[in-house]
Batch of 4 targets.
Target 1
Amino acid sequence: MKKIPLLGDITPAQFLRDYWHKKPLLIRQAIPGFKPVLPFEALAKLASENFVESRLITCFDGHWDMQHGPLAELPARERAGWTMLVQGANLVDARADALLRQFRFIPDARLDDLMISYATDGGGVGPHFDSYDVFLLQAHGKRRWKIGAQKDLTLVDGMPLKILKHFSPQEEFVLEPGDMLYLPPHYAHDGVAEGDCMTYSIGFRSPSYQELGEAFLQFMADSIDLPGRYADPDLAASSKPAEIPRHMLATVTEEMNKVRFTEEDVTIFLGEHLSEPKHNVFFTGPAKPLTAGRFAQALAKRGVALSLKTQMLYRGKHVFINGESFAVGRADKLMLDTLANARTLSGAALAGASDDVMEALYTWYQDGWVDLA
Ligand code: SIN
Ligand code: CO
């Protein structure tokens, strides 16, 4: 794989081999001349919306506080020591989405979102660690990062946010616009604004096995098939009527052991689970949708693009979009896999689309999952 500007002198393969999950990497001028995709006012407006996840973190007079959005009011910009964090900027802004997509040398199944932080002088979220990998791209102003590989990740009790009890940084860098710092999971860090600044965090998702297991059992509940009903033709008279009979326990255990799942079950579960929109994501279809006929004509001219909020994945014959799955034939699959990878298909590429694909695209268009390109 070729070098990509984002990673400086190294290729994605080298990055993944030497740094990913392993050690930090500072890339000076990862994106030379980088400018914020959203000005402060637009960011503050997003933080005030209830469909956007946001937080306000203040450290006034040495006292940490955190407030969840929507944030109707912010402290004065002249006041030092506060930070506003806006999650999922990529879901609402095309340039933020384009920035996140530059990191697609890591699969969509692992990419989470672009979080934008704005901080006034001295602002930050305190020394902490995250459970996920993160790329911290400086977008505006300067931020001083102190980082360390410490093993002691004990947190201060009773705090509204995660603050390390003993922070012992080993390295320190001041990041300027366009500079980027990669940190592996559980790496201690503290970024403090020098003057007001904005930092873009490219975050990843790594679901816990507990989360996956709970969701998988719910998924399997819809598909398990256990015929028969408990019976005890040899039942003997009981002297301890409250005790669950031994025979009942043994028989039910044997029957429950018949619950089986295949890799295909896991494929469908994982695809649906990972493509499921977050709780605060809502799709809105066009106010005046075209008829199916007009849509097909427009598609041939303009092509189609996935909405910023749409997550489309595939594996084998299964295609997943926003929590739904389809098993599709070979020709349709090639086309849908291309749409999932490129997130857009030209009118020419759609020329041979089957009726099934056209029907699916029309439904997705009505639901706001895809738009005309
Ligand atoms: C920030 O942008 O202020 C916080 C990012 C982080 O430390 O994970
Ligand atoms: Co962090």
Target 2
Amino acid sequence: MKRTQTAILAALTAVAPMAALAEDSADPIVIPIHNWSSQIVMSNVVGQILSEQGANVEFVTTDSQAVYESIRLGDVTLEMEVWEGAFGASFRAAQEKGGIVDVGDHDAVTREDWWYPMWTKEACPGLPAWEALNECAEVFATVETGDKGRYLDGPVDWLKHGKERVEALDMNFTVINAGSAAALWAEIGAAEADKKPIVVFNWTPNFAEAVWPGEFVEFPEWEDGCDKDPSVGPNPDALYDCGNPADGYLKKAAWDGMEEKWPAAYATLGKISFTNPQIAQMAKLVDVEEMEPEEAAAEWLEANKDVWQGWIN
Ligand code: TMO
């Protein structure tokens, strides 16, 4: 058996040009880890898939905006979750400079925006319109925010521009940045007992939609350029006077040298595509079932072999 393989390999080597036999580099593929659960679990899932395929994989914890510059420079190899709302601008900026490639979309529709649990509607029946939210601002007031409503935005590195939006639309809200995703879930959990009205940053796909039914606030619809050109959106003098895209993409991105250095891993990355329910499930394993990310990834892979085995060469 062994001798036959060696003979075949020798025969192949004799006829095939070297490039056809190019193998993935043994250098580590560097996968970034950020600060929300689906990204952490998905990155571990993909790390385990690529390891299974023979790759050397290394994880680094990085800022979720600065990562696009790191990928462009080749310090980080890929990114599994480019959310249009939060990271579209940083991704486009890196693309314009060069060095980063779009490796295709997941089969998922994403949305990230101001959100409330359904019980909030009882205190503010005009919801989900942003104007109605604004008229109800005092319902959301706290000691901390005085007569303004409190809006708990995401951690600063998600660059949600909540403060800019409040100014651009002249809203009676004070924007507070959560220190972590966990702080958002704690805020919703604490409000649940006595059905306190709250408005916080949230997104889909996420585990939260299965735990707390809710809705996104409807802001003026996103238009391309709303974050770059003041004339776009209802306030002619301001940026960020629109909601985030309601049907945003979720992309994969990579360093443009990845294809040549790790051709097999790059081919697999091209095939990988997760759906909304799969992504929500990845988050749930950590945020509800309290598993460690590595363990959650192993469990997800075990339960979904039919999904990913066809992606490996
Ligand atoms: C980037 N995020 C999914 C947390 O909005």
Target 3
Amino acid sequence: MSSVRIRRIGLPGRIAAITLCVTATGLVHVNSSSAHASPKITEEAWGSTAEGQVDRYTLTNGKGMRVRILTYGGILQTIEVPDRRGRLANVTLGFDNLTDYVERSPYFGCITGRYANRIANGQFTLNGDPYTLPINNPPNSLHGGTIGFDKHIWTAAPFTRGSEVGLVMTFTSPDGDQGYPGTLNTQVTYTLTRDNGIRMDYKATTDKPTVVNLTNHAYFNLAGEGTGTIDDHLLTLNASRYTPVDPTLIPTGAIDPVAGTPMDFTKPTAIGARNRVNFEQLVIGRGYDHNWVLDRRDNTFRKLEFAARVLEKGSGRVLSIYTTEPGIQFYAGNFLDGTLIGTSGRMYRQGDGFALETQHYPDSPNQPQFPSTVLNPGQTYQTTTIYQFSTGR
Ligand code: BGC
């Protein structure tokens, strides 16, 4: 029997070797170390804020996919995934330093809370009691207020479970934090799966009636962050309706069909194909910045269902999103303006990344016809979303 050792044949990451064994009978046994590489999680200090030390965790799975997570804001700092030839690229927008995250981040990769997206005029009433929130996106309150969940240091507990690695992140928001009632105990579990998925399990409990709407705000560019616009990415949304907005980006209360409009992504369509057409909703948002109503079979919002798929043809990278949530905010990076320098040292301009934020609809606390975001003592808020990476055509 002869044995030939071949070094690295176009496989991703830290894969050392493939051994081909040719036996006397002519059979070839392929022994790839990639198939058996174990998942790994490492931790390092990554600076500090007024609240304390920030740590950065690096999670790697058996296929070489690598994700970096900061305890500051629970931020997904980098997400390195293979293209169709196995070459890794970082597909999420972000920074290479903590100061930029603290001082100028447009919510790159963070956990967004207590309430993702906008609440009109920073006001809502619950059980007859009025609540006032910070107006940080005039005239509205955006993403939980001035000091939302993205601006706190979370506690992280790493775990390894079979071929998966992950981090359980926790944060307790005190009663009255940013104007919201109730002490909110929040837990977000990030799991890097063996098949290149990032699973996010959100949980929260409260000691007073409150409203909650948590999401992750990662921006993606599947060709690699900093490589230019996402105009040619093909987007599919499992949504035949969306919630149109007023000029301040608050839902009008209507739920409109997408059919016959540039909001129709029920079939794979390039993001840039219609984002400059003179359609009132696009003019208001300076492009896509809307909540789509997912076509769900399960309306108890407990089952994971397909929400979105994005394909970047050049690399073959695909992002598929599954969620228990009723809505998804598709934001096409309209407010990126060339003033931010990203992780790889290149500037981000308008449309250089997109966000697909699974969520309950914006402004639900003021729109009783929308699925409820109320959480009462004794209940557990529980949602799950998966960012699944693969390659395709
Ligand atoms: C909002 C946008 C906002 C962006 C960054 C998105 O969720 O819908 O209007 O500019 O987040 O804050």
Target 4
Amino acid sequence: MNKHKALTIGLFGFGVVGEGLYKVLQQTPSLKAHIKKVCIKHPGKARNAPADLFTTEKDDLLFDNEINVIVEVIDDADAAFHIVSTALHQGKAVVSASKKMIAEHLLEILALQQQTGLPFLYEAAACASIPVIRNLEEYYDNDLLHGIRAIVNGSTNFILTKMFEDKLAYGEALLLAQQLGFAESNPKLDVEGYDALNKWTFLLTHAYGITAQPDDILFTGIQNIQLTDANVAKEKGFDIKLVAQAQKLKSGQVAAFVLPQFVTKDDHLSFVRNEYNGVVIESGFSDKQFFYGKGAGSFPTASAVLSDISALRYDYHYEYKKLYHHTPAELSNDFYLRVFVSFDKLNEVPKDEFEWIEEWHGGQERSYLVGVIHFEKLVAHKWWKHQGISLIVTPQPVIEDIEIRNLKKRSLELAGII
Ligand code: HSE
């Protein structure tokens, strides 16, 4: 795109993010980008912008030759994919914040970008104001990227903070997250981990060249976490966070999952409260780096959309370096996880699936254990997703084969068996 050319935007969606972008663009005239039309679903709603800006006809934007940028911030994944593919076929650059759509249609989107050569940018789709995609894409070499741990969903982090630090009830905390514009229109997507999973799906592409489907990644949300779990965490000096994790194994394959996690007080993620997100990157030579910023909300998300629009000026597009220029990594299920599991009287935990159990507490209402289990067993049997069972991984949860044999031996030695 010619750097002096005007950016004429067709915007899809005028919700929390769309309206935020409209306001932010009014305050950044130097960008020389203006919204020509906004396509909305419900024309009856009162909106803080001139009525003639709006249409309900998507083709008014997609087939307008003056519009050279489509910005799509709607929450219907199928409609969003139709908009993105039509816009790219029409020769328009596209900026999107639709994480579900990107996760579910990643392969088609990669093909569309190759076919059209046009930029499709989506920094706002993960961690809102934190420039995580561009950093993973541009800065980190796959071979040196040992691992990433991240809080990628603002609503669940907000709810956990409000419940366990500010003592709000779950319903109150969720309502607040909805009122503040952090939650998805269907908050089940946040609470049950789907939103974090979607974001993790394409962040793995930028980090490691992995092109997984959301179904390929083990996940759950915070729906089963109990106050008693938070009390156990407190006793042990931990916080509970919903953490997306990827770790390079000795085989070169990658262990990846999205699960609640106990984090120690000196973990950078412990510092991440409310709707903030955080990303801890471990890479060779640089050790740990921590990215922190607001992960949800109108202006933080709009700021990432704005940055993508601005990047179009210099023809920025993702090169998907780890996928096209390196040997892409593969996901592995061949490792062990150290987990905490708490469960009520109505549920049994299949103890024989564990390699060993380190701690066991039988309680009146709930019991819990800490043990080591092969990841494949969690993939194959989903008992840990049942209502009444909560599974939380411990700090440094990934254990590889060689270590487990040593640990086993040590525990047997300690028990005086060998
Ligand atoms: N519902 C999402 C969250 C919005 O809470 O993180 C930002 O993607």
